[in-house]
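Pasting two entries for a bug report.
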Amino acid sequence: MKKKYISMLAAGLCITMLTGCQETPKDTIVKQKGADAVKSYESAETATDGLLRESLGAPMHYTNKASYEGGGLVIDTDADVILPEVKALSTYAVSARAVNQELIDTVSDAFFEEATFYSAYTYKEWTKEDYQEDINRLKKYKSEGNLDPYDMGVDENGQPQFDIDEQIAWAEQSMQEAPDEITKEEVKPSFGMKYWTGKGEERTEEVDEDSFYGVAETAQGTYDYSVKYGLAPDIVFSIAKDGQKATIDSREFSDWLDTACVLGSEENGENRLTEDEVKGMLDISLEDARRVAEEKVEKLGWGLELYNWDYAVYHHGEGGVNRDNILDAGYMFHFTRKLDGTPVTFTDSYGGGLEDMDSTLTPWSYERCDVIVGDDGIQKVEIFNPYEIGEIKTENVKLMDFDSIIKIYEQMMEVSNADITEYENNRTYHIRKIVLGYSRIYDPATDCDTGLMVPVWDFIGGFDAITDDYNVKNNGEYSNQSFMTINAIDGTIIDRELGY
């Protein structure tokens, strides 16, 4: 996705979210949500002998196509209806797992057997050789007439955001003070690690009170390893193999990306990636890769299970993902937990957003565990906010029937996109999966690290959007994006980006 495309698409997505947060009209069929609504959850009077699909009247597939705003908004629902094979669902108390040395050790031991850890501050310090390579590269760009090699553009005054001459001068000065070799300072993954900043008389000692930045040397390769708890209660563990990064410009953007938005999109035209091309880059089978991921996650001891998987590619540069800028490929595995045989539904949303920039609430993002495995093992791991599941709050909770949920979905998709034609000429949603599973909700105004696991319906797919400046097309076939989340108990709308 090019920069312009990203900014436009982000604007479109923001519009969707903002309109989704507008006040519900008086004639809608959605009840207001809040603490009082949660207290009113009740158990079903009698237990059913059949599975939920039968008791809720849910079909195997649901199809409906509706047009609004003079054809400017189309909701095309052609979706498999996915339910757990259980007879009943309950609600559960949930809280953030305690963040302490034991938690850090659990993750470290699970993913790094017999590893040696070093401080990233000294391990990643540039040597004279590193600066010289950077200088040579920048001078080569300049000789070729490429004064903006990182596509940073200009500021509001028309001045370049990236001054190549200034950067060359800075690198030449820094090289004079750089060491000939790096210093490998062995450490233990933990908070409170000390490090030094500045040079000469300005050199001062600092302490990472709520984070850890390290490098792990293993028999499988070298990994960057960080633990971040600066935005408590959110905690994030990040693991990334330091392999392909060494082959490209260190200033150039590079990262792993799941291919859901790439394979389902028509962006990049003839140069866009195909599933067969991604498969052709892999020398490890899905089964073997899955085994590697599951063995690591099982060692965490949290009861996480594989939910689904996707292909992933390691790309570099600002020009979007295409066959010209991909360096590697792998499989991305998404893990969630199950409660009485029913999984927590995985979506693209991280949760933990704020309703506006002036909010003083403390957000809490969802639990998440994603593992990428390539030909030579683990490539990247991200773990967010592990949960502690508590007691059952409402056993065999009473759920709304499928027809009632569909009525809410169809009406609220229209309401939440009521002004979409003010920003886009046309938008067509392609809903491809309707899923009943668990999600966590909470009240950040009351408590930012405890909540409730409740059954919800998610409506997952993609969309086409047309404006005067861009044309986005995504058929939703590979998507994990939920465009509507409905509480299966009382029909209230849950904002996936906020988490409640």
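Entry 2 (this is the one that rendered wrong in the viewer):
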Amino acid sequence: MTTILILLAIVAVLGLWAVGIYNNLVRLRNNREQAFANIDVQLKQRHDLIPQLVATVKGYAEHEREVFQRVTEARAAAMGATTINDKIQAENRLSGALAGLKVSLENYPELKANQNFLQLQNEVSDIENKLAAVRRAFNMATRELNNAVQTFPNNVLAGMFGFQKEPMFEVPQEERAELDKAPEINF
């Protein structure tokens, strides 16, 4: 009888321990999803500004049609993405397309003096700064989830319940190459 009580106590402790691990994994997954919801808010604002920015620039740079096409297509793909991972990939493509737009704008000094363009550019810049902040929060939540999913003994239960390592929201490879280059300074 005592042996049965001891075994029941051990099973109960192990059960409570497993429930604790599972609940922690769920909390971490929910934190990651909430962090991405904060990114979604900023992305929506960026998506709303892009058509205005493109329309303003089009009048000045009609021959840059390919750049505008890439930005428009990337925006459409980003708005159509449904899963977190698809959104991350689509937003990285959109960021690359926007970087191409910024480079081509350097050829139009009269556009850079246009008040409407300057205001839109400032708004986009502000949203990009906010995006950087919420991406950091998302990546921290993702790191916490990944640590919990990959460490023992959590990894045993994580695998059983379908938890897996999730991707970070990282700088696209095109932008990373630019960041790795030393800046040019001309006098």
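Dev reply: Rendering is fixed now. As a check, the viewer should reflect this: The helical segments are 2-58, 65-80, 84-105, 109-112, 115-150, 154-160, 173-180.
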